[in-house]
Design a protein that fits this description.
With 407 residues, this protein is mostly helical. The chain is 73% helix and 0% strand. It has 2 domains: 195 residues, MFS general substrate transporter like domains (Growth Hormone, Chain: A, Up-down Bundle); 187 residues, MFS general substrate transporter like domains (Growth Hormone, Chain: A). The protein is globular and about 55 Å long.
Length: 407
């Protein structure tokens, strides 16, 4: 056993980081399939339910932007510990939803913080413990693949467990959150056993300077990665957030189960397609990003067809295609970020990428706000057309700005 393994107590620290990302991602997505439950059982209006989603973004966005840069300065371990505490407090608060909307607002805000830390800090930490001296057998892309897989599996598992409990037991308002607390508590100890990998060497320069991310000005990041980033969560939010709403009439009576099924299919597909995404990735081209982008376009057109036909079966197909596009696009983007970033701003650039990505999560709310005067079919087709324009921009930019080129 290596010296690192002896000091940490684990021969493979990446396994613990995987568990951290998995459980924190679980805490963020367990709420999604319960939206119909809160509307039917606790009689919250659509406006209030959307507010529960919005408060999550208020916790997520600053966490994504700040946690990564702070971990570059102070270390991965203390920031990830904050994320674990936030996840425990979030699920603990959500378990008391019967007391009113206050625990729900607080829980969703804290869940946003937890997921933001998992995505920004956890992804960077995973990359660093998936290379020598911590894992000499791993290749360059192992960290990105493991982080992406942990995020998608955690998100899917949270939705699956919560949705199944809500659909088939009377304990849906609190039991899913208690399960997440039970999973997260051991991480308070495990996180202390993972080696610290931040290369900052302690506090250097002013805190204000730490929030500068030099790699963010890299032309490859601006003209390729940033273009596709929002579309990743456009795909996710449409696939398991919007399509179930569009099919609420034909799925009446088992709406929670159907919403859970779409979520699991989409995120499960995203996880299973990781080996394909690995083979598609290329330093000399953006083919993997373009394939992911193309699948998202097809999935958005499929969602329009789903609304027109009200077909539950086609809803499943659309979730499958959007999940494939999301999975390929997410892993490919993370690999791009890791090639562009320097060791000193890896977490900061990763957090910025995710913050831009999550803009797409607002898509269902925007579509709902402008329906009418526009129809859902027209809006989804228009959205797919905008995605095609994004594909063309990536094609043009890729010819000029390959990874590692001068910014």
């Amino acid at each position: 056993m290596s010296d690192t393994a002896r000091t940490t107590g684990f021969a493979r620290p990446w396994v613990t980081v995987f568990a951290l990302i998995f459980v924190l991602s679980w805490s963020g997505n367990q709420f999604t399939p319960l939206l119909l439950l809160y509307k039917s059982e606790q009689h919250y209006s659509s406006l209030v339910v959307n507010a529960f989603l919005g408060i999550y973004v208020l916790g997520l966005a600053p966490s994504l932007l700040l946690a990564g840069a702070l971990s570059d300065r102070y270390g991965r371990r203390p920031l990830m510990l904050v994320g674990v505490v936030a996840a425990i407090c979030a699920s603990g608060s959500l378990a008391f939803s019967s007391l009113g909307s206050g625990p729900l607002y607080l829980g969703r805000f804290l869940a946003g913080i937890a997921v933001g830390v998992a995505m920004a800090v956890g992804t960077s930490w995973m990359k660093e413990v998936s290379q020598a001296p911590h894992d000499r057998a791993a290749d360059f892309g192992a960290g990105a693949r493991r982080a992406s897989l942990a995020f998608t599996l955690g998100s899917g598992s949270g939705a699956l467990v919560a949705g199944a409990i809500a659909q088939w037991t009377p304990f849906g308002e609190f039991l899913p959150f208690l399960i997440n607390v039970a999973l997260a508590l051991p991480l308070l100890w495990l996180v202390l056993r993972v080696p610290e990998t931040s290369v900052s060497g302690g506090v250097q320069g002013s805190l204000r300077e730490q929030f500068r991310i030099p790699a963010a000005s890299h032309k490859r990041f601006i003209r390729v990665v940033v273009v596709i980033a929002p579309w990743l969560f456009v795909a996710a939010s449409i696939g398991y957030g919007y399509v179930p709403v569009l099919l609420s009439a034909p799925s009446e009576g088992f709406g929670v189960a159907y919403a859970t099924l779409l979520c699991v299919i989409m995120l499960g597909t995203s996880a299973l397609i990781q080996p394909v995404a690995k083979r598609l990735d290329s330093v000399s081209s953006a083919r993997s990003l373009l394939i992911g982008f193309g699948l998202i376009v097809i999935g958005l057109l499929g969602a329009a067809f789903v609304d027109a036909t009200q077909s539950l079966a086609l809803g499943i197909v659309a979730a499958f295609v959007l999940g494939a596009g999301f999975g390929i696009g997410l892993l490919s983007s993370l690999l791009e970020v890791q090639r562009i970033a320097t060791p000193k701003d890896l977490a900061g650039l990763t957090g910025l990428f995710y913050a831009i990505s999550y803009v797409g999560f607002l898509t269902p709310a925007i579509l709902s706000a402008i329906t009418p005067p526009f129809t859902t079919v027209v809006l989804l087709v228009a959205l797919a057309a905008c995605a095609v324009i994004g594909c063309l921009l990536v094609v043009v930019s890729n010819r000029k700005h390959l990874p590692g080129a001068a910014g």
